[in-house]
Write a structure and sequence with these properties.
The complex is a heterodimer of chains A (157) and B (249). With 157 residues, chain A is mainly α. Chain A has 5 helices and no strands. Chain B has helices at residues 3-24, 31-47, 50-58, 60-80, 83-89, 94-103, 106-111, 114-130, 133-139, 141-163, 174-198, 206-239, 244-248. Classes of the chains: A mainly alpha (157), B mainly alpha (249). Chains A and B meet through helix 3 of A and helix 11 and helix 12 of B.
């Protein structure tokens, strides 16, 4: 019971939020660095992009950067004031990463059509791989979250 | 010597003098603020020097570098060095009340509102790049000069309205300032992608425009991210207070 109080006084919601924001921001940065710049599978602007697609691309990119910085500032503050909840950081981080990967794979690539994973014939394999990676990260994040809720995460023991 | 050199060298000397006076009176003023102010003033003097201006005039990439330094990076440094606070520490106390009275005047409050500052900044850029104004500027030295002052002043105004450390009474709420900052960042990113894709300003060669737009997108992000961080720190500090337990540890 005493242990539960300890966890409640720590801010689980805020810790999860900070970790999710950081996860989204880091995954988005990885996507941009690895796939856009290093591999150059897709580009800064694709030739057939519409003005609207570019606008949404700009908005999404800005939100990703803001999430990374605000998530960092929030996590820093929670640690400074000792209000961070152990066990929920890793869970939130992976949920954020997986959530972004899946969002990018479905909304950015398929619904908004900003760009494809790679410009090749057998695109389906790339799409499946992309989204499967997102689901896998989400599943691990969910498993970590359940462990943290039980108080069984390694940083809680 | 051009006007930019004169003004910013004078400001840098004045800041140094104020810093030295406080130090001599053993009232502390952080050294990093002096360094940031000097570097920012020096950066403006450098990009506004004749060789850099010639490059900016000929080449769109040069223009973009000048814009990034004089309109975004240096203004952020000038504002974060808190020059008004330093000045007020060096003058009689009643000047502080005058300053507060001045920034409380309705026209000043409207001008320094985050929304106004953002419109002057990003709105000015949209007009400059998406219309023929850019070509007009290249042929009109007087207008070009005015435009460069506009970049610097609008940049300072924006940094100050969003997260300036100097005293400003009745400032809009943090959430408001945060919203305006994020919105103007999104427009900045969007504008640079449009310029790349649709070739704006049309009067410049496409390769220069594309490289300039990429520079605007990626390099512009650094001062923006710093501003987000500074504002987020203020926000989180007011939202999550120190607890007795955390202060003990």
């Amino acid at each position: 019971m005493n242990e539960m109080n300890e966890i409640v006084r720590q801010r689980i919601g805020a810790t999860l939020l900070a970790a999710i924001l950081l996860g989204i921001g880091v995954m988005a940065a990885l996507d941009e660095i690895v796939f856009h710049q290093l591999l150059a599978w897709h580009h800064f602007v694709e030739i057939d992009n519409s003005a609207l697609a570019l606008a949404s691309d700009g908005v999404l990119h800005t939100l990703e950067l803001v999430m990374l910085v605000v998530g960092g500032a929030l996590m820093l503050r929670l640690h400074e004031t000792g209000q961070h909840a152990g066990g929920f950081r890793g869970a939130g981080f992976l949920l954020g990463m997986g959530g972004f990967q899946l969002f990018d794979g479905i909304v950015d690539h398929k619904i908004l059509g900003l760009h494809q994973v790679r410009y090749v014939d057998n695109l389906l394999i790339y799409d499946l791989g992309w989204n499967a990676a997102g689901l896998l990260l989400l599943a691990i994040g969910y498993w970590l979250l359940r462990r943290a809720r039980r108080g069984a995460a390694s940083s809680q023991r | 010597m051009n006007g930019f050199t004169l003004v910013f060298a004078t400001l840098a000397i004045a800041y140094g003098w104020g810093w030295w006076r406080l130090k001599r009176g053993s009232r502390e003023w952080p050294l990093w603020r002096l360094v940031v102010f000097w570097l920012s003033a020096l950066a403006i003097i450098a990009v506004m020097s004749p060789p850099s201006m010639h490059w900016a005039h000929r080449d769109f990439r040069g223009h973009m570098v000048v814009h990034l330094v004089a309109g975004m990076i240096a203004p952020l440094g000038l504002v974060m060095a808190a020059p008004v606070s330093l000045a007020l520490k060096n003058v009689p106390v009643h000047w502080g009340r005058r300053w507060v009275g001045f920034v409380s005047l309705p026209p000043i409050r409207v001008l320094s509102h985050p929304v106004t500052a953002a419109l002057l900044n990003i709105g000015g850029m949209m007009v400059l790049y998406l219309t023929d104004l850019y070509a007009t500027m290249l042929h009109s030295p007087g207008f070009a000069l005015w435009l460069h002052w506009h970049f610097i002043i609008a940049g300072c105004l924006f940094s100050w309205a969003i997260a300036g450390p100097d005293p400003a009474p009745k400032r809009p709420a943090l959430e408001w300032r945060f919203g305006v900052l994020v919105a103007s960042m999104a427009v900045h990113a969007m504008l640079s992608k449009w310029m790349y894709r649709f070739h704006f300003p049309a009067s410049m060669p496409i390769d220069q425009v594309r490289q300039g737009a990429e520079l605007m997108f990626y390099a512009g992000e650094l001062p923006e991210a710093l501003l987000v961080y500074l504002l987020a720190r203020q926000w989180m500090r007011s939202r999550y207070r120190e607890t007795p337990a955390s202060m003990a540890s």
